[in-house]
Amino acid sequence: MNTYHATITITLRKGILDVQGKTVEHALHATDFPMISHLRIGKYVELTVEAENKTTAHSLVEDACRKLIANPIMEDFSISLNELQVENV
What we know:
CATH architecture: 2-Layer Sandwich
Shape: elongated
Number of domains: 1
Structural class: alpha+beta
Helix content: 25-40%
Strand order of the largest sheet: 2-1-3
Largest sheet: 3 strands, antiparallel
CATH class: Alpha Beta
CATH topology: Mth169, Chain: A
Radius of gyration: 17 Å
Strand content: 25-35%
Distance between the termini: 18 Å
Number of strands: 3
CATH superfamily: Phosphoribosylformylglycinamidine synthase subunit PurS
Order of helices and strands: EHEHE
């Protein structure tokens, strides 16, 4: 069994109004950052998963995202996986 470190980036779908992002963008404009625009705020999740291979690990994380971690109606997600190296002691 291999161990993988997964990072998941979750963002609101393009058509969904990002109220938090708009609020921060307006605050930035009011504090001398008018050059910043199209600000959107998302979530970042890290986890460890044990699986036989990278494909299986990705499928497990994707299922977890679709069922619980992300809201599939309003959010999109992307997954990055890296195999953790076990050090021999």
